[in-house]
Specification:
By secondary structure, the chain is mainly alpha-helical. Helix content is 88%, strand content 0%. α1 runs antiparallel to α2 and α2 runs antiparallel to α3.
Length: 90
């Protein structure tokens, strides 16, 4: 059981937990983005057209941002649904 789940179970603010999860997702995606960006830079430096490698880098960044947005929306809907269930139970 993750600490975010425990925090929600103990009655802490769901939005705060959601914000923490989103920040963790952001940190992970920045690390992955940096690794792939470095790979594209190296590929551009050794043979491939640097402009093409840069466009790949930008495209991959856009894919990560879209992925984060959809994961965030999914988590937000899940938190909202859990909040409604708790409110009905009270």
């Amino acid at each position: 059981m993750s600490e975010d789940t425990v925090a929600v179970a103990k009655g802490h603010d769901e939005q705060e937990c959601l914000r923490r999860v989103f920040i963790e997702l952001g940190i992970i995606s920045v690390i992955v983005y940096g690794l792939f960006g470095g790979m594209f830079y190296v590929v551009g430096a050794f043979g491939q057209d640097p402009i093409k490698a840069g466009l790949n880098f930008i495209g991959f960044g856009i894919v990560i941002l879209v992925y984060e947005y959809f994961v965030f929306r999914l988590l937000q809907k899940k938190v909202d649904k859990n909040s409604l269930i708790k409110k009905e139970a009270v």
